[in-house]
Write a structure and sequence with these properties.
Blueprint: E1 11-16, E2 30-36, E3 46-53, E4 56-76, E5 91-97, E6 115-116, E7 131-132, E8 142-149, E9 152-160, E10 169-174, E11 180-187, E12 194-196
Parallel strand pairs: 8-12
Antiparallel strand pairs: 1-4, 2-3, 3-4, 4-5, 6-7, 8-9, 9-10, 10-11, 11-12
């Protein structure tokens, strides 16, 4: 309860392997401290409990088990191959234990339209590290080169020699001069893809 703000929005519970043998503490002002084996709590395999009477340690013990964190997260509806572009039809919600999952997706809009960088099976939880933005410019694609200098704007047409995402620097061959120039991917738009040096 003290660490709620550090935990995901999930139904969290500790499932113990075995309970300790009952014990008796002396009379006095009782306080206790619970220390997870992992500071992140969710991957903890045991919790140490320190009991104090009148601020003096009266007993120190450990309870083994696992933390379960059930949350509604985005999962795949079917097997999706690597390099596929994610669509809404690929996704659904399911209640899953996310205690060992780093950064699970809770909003499908975060990954729709992105490219999958590894294959997933039906029911797999989608995480942000599994996807990336697809290239905005494809290798061999006709692009528009834009050069801005003070109040002057020059344009030319070229062919990209690399795939490129937004803001990537790629090699582009100027069709008129056949020279290779380095450009920054600036915007999508078919044959009028814009790039700036």
């Amino acid at each position: 309860e003290d660490r709620t703000k550090d935990l995901p929005d999930a139904e969290i519970r500790f499932i113990h392997k075995s309970l300790p043998i009952p014990f008796i503490l002396p009379e006095g002002n009782l306080s206790y401290e619970v220390i997870p084996s992992n500071p992140g709590i969710l991957t903890s395999s045991r919790f140490s409990i320190i009991f104090r009477i009148d601020d003096k340690v009266a007993r120190n013990m450990s309870v083994k088990g696992k933390v379960e964190a059930l949350a509604n997260v985005v999962v795949s509806t079917k097997k999706i191959r690597k390099d596929s572009i994610i669509t809404p039809q690929h996704l659904t919600y399911a209640k899953k234990d996310i205690s060992n999952i780093s950064d699970p997706t809770v909003n499908p809009n975060e990954i729709v339209g992105k490219k999958l960088i590894k294959s997933v099976k039906a029911g797999d939880v989608l995480v942000s590290s599994m996807v990336e933005f697809p290239p905005m410019v494809q290798r061999g694609e006709r692009v528009k080169i834009v050069i801005k200098y003070e109040n002057m704007v020059l344009t030319a047409t070229g062919f990209s020699h690399n795939n490129g995402k937004l803001h990537d620097i790629i090699r582009v061959q100027n069709i008129s001069s056949n020279k290779i120039v380095y450009c920054r991917v600036a915007a999508p738009g078919g044959h009028i893809r814009a790039a700036t040096p």
